Amino acid sequence: MTAGSMIRRITETTSTNDDARRPEYRHGDIVWAERQTAGRGQRGHSWTSAEGENLTFSLVLEPRFLPVGEQFLLSEAVALALTDTFADFGIDTRIKWTNDIYVGDRKLVGILIEHSYTGPTLGRSVAGIGINVNQRVFDPALPNPVSMALAAGRTFDREEVLERFRTHCAARYALLERGDADTLQRDYRARMYRLGTPHPYRLPDGSLFTAAIEGVRPSGELLLRHADGTLRAYLFREVEFVID
Ligand code: BTN
């Protein structure tokens, strides 16, 4: 990311998101673990990954210029850097709101961004990323996994994937630093999974409805066009995709 930033590769940890909080790490540094004993996912789920085959790492970011209310733009930058990376390897991906990366209807990457701040702007943000790189056999309990290897029919060099991601992330982060939210918003929208396509969604009370994604607000709210023509905005946790 920046001159002097490093990749620390370790054998085992609880969660790389925990390591990345330590003060020895600086903006742009990456902690990559071969094995996580307590890998975390979104919505309180755990994250498991086949040892030696995938990438499980956390990137340290210090966007001290970014108002807390605009933290979604950071998620956009990270998700876009990932789609840029896969494009380099010939894999077409989409971003499933808020920030899963999909190939077709299957999940390739999970992202867990954890922020810390004391004032009106962000302090340290840890972007935890799990990429299925070379894994070909998955736990049947997982709903819809895919890997780069399954998508492309070949294996990949994990260091090369990580280096590509660092390069793209630096470019996307530079947009954020320049205040170019419009480009991030435009590109994120263009790569959204199920953009404009009717799809079932579930509300926290369990009820289902069908709607089509129209876009996303800079605050991160999902804009859904309902069958009756109304446009409504939903925060994370207010609505969930129903996996077919
Ligand atoms: C999700 O899709 O639920 C998010 C998964 C995020 C997994 C990554 S692996 C590296 C980092 N460390 C963690 O404990 N979680 C993230």
Description of the structure:
- With 244 residues, the protein is α+β, with helices and mostly antiparallel strands.
- The protein folds into two domains: 184 residues, 2-Layer Sandwich (BirA Bifunctional Protein, domain 2); 44 residues, SH3 type barrels (Roll), CATH 2.30.30.
- It is 23% helix and 30% strand.
- The chain is built from five helices and twelve strands.
- A seven-stranded mixed sheet has the order 1-2-3-7-6-5-4. It has a five-stranded antiparallel sheet with strand order 11-10-9-8-12.
- A hairpin with a 3-residue loop joins strand 4 and strand 5.
- Helix 2 packs across helix 5.
- The radius of gyration is 17 Å and the shape is globular.
- The N and C termini lie far apart (38 Å).
- The mean pLDDT is 96.
- Bound molecules: biotin.
Core attributes:
244 residues; alpha+beta; BirA Bifunctional Protein, domain 2; SH3 type barrels; 2 domains; seven-stranded mixed β-sheet; five-stranded antiparallel β-sheet; 5 helices; 12 strands; 23% helix; 30% strand; binds biotin
Count of helical stretches = 5
The first-level CATH class of the largest domain is given as Alpha Beta
Using the coordinates shown, work out and report the CATH topology of the largest domain: BirA Bifunctional Protein, domain 2
Taking the sheet with the most strands, its summary is: 7 strands, mixed
**Approximate strand percentage:** 25-35%
Name the hetero compounds present.
Answer: biotin
End-to-end separation: 38 Å
The overall average pLDDT, rounded, is 96
Describe the strand arrangement of the main beta sheet, using strand numbers.
Answer: 1-2-3-7-6-5-4
> Got a strand count?
12
The general outline is globular
Helix content: 10-25%
The CATH architecture of the largest domain comes to 2-Layer Sandwich
Going by CATH, the homologous superfamily of the largest domain would be Bira Bifunctional Protein, Domain 2
Number of domains: 2
Protein name: Biotin--[acetyl-CoA-carboxylase] ligase
GO molecular function: biotin--[biotin carboxyl-carrier protein] ligase activity
Organism: Alistipes dispar
InterPro entries: aa-tRNA-synth_II/BPL/LPL, Biotin_CoA_COase_ligase, BPL_LPL_catalytic
